[in-house]
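Fold this complex.
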Amino acid sequence: MPDQPPAQKLAGIFTPNMTPLDERGDINEAELRRYVDWLIDHGVHGLYPNGSTGEFTRFTPEERRRIVQIICDQTRGRVPVLAGAAEANVRETLRACEAYKQYGARAVAIVSPFYYRLSPGAVLAYFREIALNSPIDVTLYNIPMFASPIDVPTLQRLAELPRIIGMKDSSGDVAQMLRMMAAVQPHRPDFAFLAGWEAVLVPMLLMGCSGGTHATSGIVPEATRKIFDLTTSGQYQKARPLQLKLIELFDRIVYGADFPEGIRAAVELRGFKLGASRQPPNPEQRIDRAELERLINDLLKMAKSIE
Amino acid sequence: MPDQPPAQKLAGIFTPNMTPLDERGDINEAELRRYVDWLIDHGVHGLYPNGSTGEFTRFTPEERRRIVQIICDQTRGRVPVLAGAAEANVRETLRACEAYKQYGARAVAIVSPFYYRLSPGAVLAYFREIALNSPIDVTLYNIPMFASPIDVPTLQRLAELPRIIGMKDSSGDVAQMLRMMAAVQPHRPDFAFLAGWEAVLVPMLLMGCSGGTHATSGIVPEATRKIFDLTTSGQYQKARPLQLKLIELFDRIVYGADFPEGIRAAVELRGFKLGASRQPPNPEQRIDRAELERLINDLLKMAKSIE
Amino acid sequence: MPDQPPAQKLAGIFTPNMTPLDERGDINEAELRRYVDWLIDHGVHGLYPNGSTGEFTRFTPEERRRIVQIICDQTRGRVPVLAGAAEANVRETLRACEAYKQYGARAVAIVSPFYYRLSPGAVLAYFREIALNSPIDVTLYNIPMFASPIDVPTLQRLAELPRIIGMKDSSGDVAQMLRMMAAVQPHRPDFAFLAGWEAVLVPMLLMGCSGGTHATSGIVPEATRKIFDLTTSGQYQKARPLQLKLIELFDRIVYGADFPEGIRAAVELRGFKLGASRQPPNPEQRIDRAELERLINDLLKMAKSIE
Amino acid sequence: MPDQPPAQKLAGIFTPNMTPLDERGDINEAELRRYVDWLIDHGVHGLYPNGSTGEFTRFTPEERRRIVQIICDQTRGRVPVLAGAAEANVRETLRACEAYKQYGARAVAIVSPFYYRLSPGAVLAYFREIALNSPIDVTLYNIPMFASPIDVPTLQRLAELPRIIGMKDSSGDVAQMLRMMAAVQPHRPDFAFLAGWEAVLVPMLLMGCSGGTHATSGIVPEATRKIFDLTTSGQYQKARPLQLKLIELFDRIVYGADFPEGIRAAVELRGFKLGASRQPPNPEQRIDRAELERLINDLLKMAKSIE
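Structure:
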């Protein structure tokens, strides 16, 4: 495509959105569309369906496609869609990549192989095979607590493939992110580093990330947008109190309940019907909705008050 | 079913078999049937398709059913089939349970929720929902290195459900297995504890396991059978040298290559065409087939020589 | 020493004894001597001062020597003393070795380097330097949860040094113990493998350990002796219920309180005044002495009832 | 001391200095004094003897005192001394605190209890006992990879004690540092947070640390000083390339050799005779001195070139 301008570097806050379910446990399309509109209206820079927050492992392959299709259709180009495309194996994943390209996604995000913990060489071979055959741009998704880690030499070699345009890191390890940037940025200034752990959103942005994918942006998009805008415009000291408060919300949803049930509860507090989880409810766990609501309100108020 | 005799406790060595693929990467049914016959002829007590060794995560839901169907059909009741039935969520898993019952499986094995690390309460809720609705006996599959751990209190409560008839543990933690036995056996003498880590097969059998599911039984079924027979007949001192040699093979296939590529290579050395892995080959990893062959031959010779 | 008979392989249950303190927090020599006598009278095969249970890190170098001196003096050869001799560096450790030899210890036990996590090569160099210069037999002490792990190749090379006569392993990893035995026993049949994790005492003895060092033997020496005698005389099935009950006690003292406060409480229940811990009391932790007492009584009764 | 002005908050880069040894393995006082002078002349804000880099565990209690005495004497008030004072138990530690106060140290640093992994309540009790009895200001030293972690609620409660004036954190976890600041700063604006992991020095300073203790400041004090000055004066973008290069040096000394042998080699490259390590040399480990030298020179050149 020689005539096409180079695609813009991925930047901003992408929401790894949850998918509302109806009373039978199926995808609630109307509510999903309403949620997408609300997120865009409240400032998110992009959508990221089929992420960890989006419970991609709990949907069937057909459902995962349906979710991306609805979201691409609903966004209608207003914001880019980064579609989670990991399937059972490379062949199935490539089929999803083709479908998501047709739906209009900007790129796909592919989590490192999970269940088995694979060695760096196997992680490299896996992403390489996908990148060489994908019809759509690929971002790597590094989440060592759930999947095989992507290490620095592996990333460095993968960044030689033009189809791979960025990496989302959910380790929260700022030092490791700096090592990755040092290895890749000299050769690939267009390569996007996306932070995936909002507890360090401000330092990650200060140190060179162009954005992030954050579950909390599906709850308080106003606040994550404000943090992004302040930090990227040189006002990180103003962003710092918001960052500290965001950690409180983040810790509560991440450590206070089985993932992602805290997020489900919080999104519902913003007015969306997400339906019952596909994971049977854990009777030993009660989410303190009043506390969640207080934190959300604090964040919204604080975000509003900072100029 | 008042007239039916109580089902026998699961016992013996079950093979978590790999599934041969053809040149296009699809299930090679003929070779799978040939492999099943060979395993039965060489002394395995049961088959266990769709286990971790069987790469269940790399097949589509349709393929997983096809694998169980072929194996149930081919075993024709000669040995029991324990069918891995974990799917994307409880609903899909129950559908698989129904299918596997119809195919003639003795029971299903369901791995603890993976990808997300869930709390004990959520693990309990998950298995409870399945056990209350499954039309077929259920065994729990505990493999903490890949999936949410099943802890002792959780197991104790799950063992109150008659549908749950056993647990396979792949932690290799003998002390933890003893704790589980202490919690469950007084109330459920019929509950089967199956060892899933052959490096401790002899001590696990000595301490109360009725059997195990072992990848090496798909490579050297003669040796694992011999270990089982010797140990359960009071001759564990004779089984000890076999156990030490089995660890050598086990370590080589588990730590010497990305799981389960070492097993694939070893099964091929016994004369089966397993085809190329669905995981693209890792060029940094070369499996020493000569060493594998030497270990296999040592084990077979040793197994033969011990009366 | 051509005229001397070869020293006997270390065997049996060694007690890593705690050291009683008086009201000023100093060593209570009289009570220590009384405790040593009681332990010997109740069947322990040896004493092991300055172990982890003995809080060696909380005493000064001078106090550590005094403890060994008192114990050697009090045992008067009735049972062998295995003296913990790790000091700040090799030079200081060797000085302790010399002193302990003079006091009459059978051997020293030296924990792998701790605080820093050293690589296998450094662990090897450390023990090698000590073994080449020690005037007294050395046992290695592997406790990966607190100190640099001793891996199999390292142990194999250390076992080439005649001064090193055994290893105590507190990992509780039966498979790893088997790997170590496979590496060492063919060349060193005299090398003693001592189990240091009583939750797997029976399986460790069955698989080739000649004994163990167990904190619980300082609480219920009658029971650990009975387990040892039953298991080493082919009656492991009779030892199994005692093993399961011992795990209950072990779990309570290890996981129920900051180590080794549970052991302190339990030893006091047997009639010894251990004094206040040098670690300031944790007000958030209350040890359930009634439950401890119940477990101790159960174990004693059970040990008595089994012939 | 009612007439004294409140002590200033700890700030700047403190060097956890190594201690030179002579040919007999004893403290080389002359070289230590020369090294201290050089560090001060090259811009470090303070000294920190008996830290992890300073191998405090490998010296005897008497040697640890001697080291602090020499350093306090040599600095003669030019820079503050933060003296590592952890000894075998609270009583011994308090004696060291008294001595270090007399020597003229600004404060002591006390590592969380190590060897045993203690619970938060025990960590709290330990530091509390020390803080209530120490005649000199205390900083807490959190280094979870070597010692019992200090968690946020524990820190919050310890910060209620005026004697505790700061915390050094060597976890490198920026999110956790933010949580700690959020818990403490509202009540204790004077409390110093010191970063102890130079791979994240810039982000830690940006997010609220007043300084740090960094082994690399003992090698390239010019560069760490430049990073500190640039970052604290709003020029963090200029500090970023230095930070990335510092990580290269840091990784090489931390992951390239048994700690702290890489630092020993690097300090020697700056012209100091540190002598042979007390840990016997690991023959499997060769430190690439040429590469170390190249990194040091790169850092020095880069530091000089940035205005």
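Chain B has one domain: 12-305.
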